[in-house]
């Protein structure tokens, strides 16, 4: 099939690729011929997913990389290993994300949800950017969420040290994903590299399996959720669809561009978030 040859010879990095929509995104890209590199914290889960992918797509080229997004040093090590093997990266999918039931601070000193969902992919993307540029035309796709739509960003308290709440900080991290996507698109204009983000829909994934009341509420609403395969459809579309080649700075939902939080269109705010994020992770602004 033509679809099977579409990404032949191309490398696709998929973070959070050992389960959920990341796993099915890796499957969709492998079916289109891409060599996929999946990352996650759990080495055994990565190995199991790699075996599953090779079974589903005979002959698939699958690499695995362990990383902990709660450690910026781990992110830097991951980028170094990937760059050593792949000097050109046509597809980068920032999918890894999580929620927690209480405020936690990482070893880097940042609120954990904000670091794992925003700062870590921000750093990884910037570190891999030379290889992505070298592969142009190339695509960077970041998984945001509908939770970004009603979120706010307090630049004086990005770590939400005051008034922390699960949905407050999660929504903030996802709005940061959108703002990062749009600012990255502006910075990459004319380079042949596109930067887009998306809302995968309400998906039944492991991200909500955190225990206590969260699990109870999840059990009630999960029957109404999309399957993981369905949730990956817009992600695979954004990463590979020929009809959107060259389209950048967009937020997709159900494979259609959608409007986002008003703050995401504030160029000065996006630039400010970029500068602050760069300072936090220790890269040039």
Indicate the overall shape. Answer: globular
CATH class: Alpha Beta
Number of strands: 8
Fraction of residues in helices?
40-55%
Strand content: 5-15%
- Secondary-structure element order, as H and E? HEHEHEHEHEHEHHHEEH
Rg calc: 18 Å
Q: Total helix count?
A: 10
Largest sheet: 8 strands, mixed
Largest sheet, order of strands side by side?
Answer: 3-2-1-4-5-6-7-8
Structural class designation? alpha/beta
CATH topology: Rossmann fold
The domain count comes to 1
CATH architecture: 3-Layer(aba) Sandwich
At the fourth CATH level, what is the homologous superfamily? NAD(P)-binding Rossmann-like Domain
Low-confidence segments: none
What's the rounded overall pLDDT mean?
92
Q: Gap between N and C termini, in Å?
A: 44 Å
Task: Summarize this entry quickly.
The chain has 10 helices and 8 strands. By secondary structure, it is an alpha/beta fold. The chain has one domain: NAD(P)-binding Rossmann-like Domain (Rossmann fold), CATH 3.40.50.
SSE diagram, text form:
Blueprint: H1 2-5, E1 11-15, H2 20-31, E2 35-40, H3 43-56, E3 62-66, H4 72-85, E4 91-94, H5 112-134, E5 138-143, H6 166-187, E6 193-199, H7 212-221, H8 228-231, H9 233-240, E7 251-253, E8 256-257, H10 267-281
Helix pairs in contact: 2-9, 4-5, 5-6, 5-10, 6-10
Describe this structure in words.
This protein is of the alpha/beta class. It has one domain (2-277): NAD(P)-binding Rossmann-like Domain (Rossmann fold, 3-Layer(aba) Sandwich). It is 44% helix and 13% strand. It is built from 10 helices and 8 strands. α2 (20-31) links the parallel β1 (11-15) and β2.
